[in-house]
Amino acid sequence: MGYISLSLNTSSLHGNPYLNCFISAAIEIPAYIVSWLSLQYLPRRLCSSASMLLGGGVLFFIPLVPSSLPIISILLEMVGKFGMTTATSLIFVYTGELYPTIIRNTAVGSCTMVSRVGGAIAPYFIHLGKGMQRPLV
């Protein structure tokens, strides 16, 4: 849900929306490379939890940024998108390795279904911020 919400919110950031969408798409390339490297060299729990904490933790600082510095807000959102992209790609591999072989297909299918439900309700979370006094990003 976080990954899809950040992807959909890119066009409403300050500045040029085309440049913001390009940066949002370009940030995924190093995120996938980092996720592949972390799967090679780090334990699964460490890389999953670290990327989720990076992706979610950075986003809490966006409301603290003054509105006169929109570049910092964009930078924080892109770092959050980097963490969310890394976490999303890691969690699919980790889920497949977590369950025993006899129930793996059912378990991965169930987890994927729950993630798709989160993706389906993600656009509604963007509308929650519209009623606030100051936009978060």
Automatic annotation (TrEMBL):
Keywords: Membrane, Transmembrane, Transmembrane helix
Membrane-spanning intervals of the chain: 17-39, 46-65, 71-94
Highest rank taxon of the organism: Eukaryota
InterPro entries noted in UniProt: MFS_trans_sf (IPR036259)
SUPFAM superfamilies: MFS general substrate transporter
Compartment(s): Membrane
GO cellular component terms, A-Z: membrane
Name by which UniProt lists this protein: Major facilitator superfamily (MFS) profile domain-containing protein
Species of provenance: Aldrovandia affinis
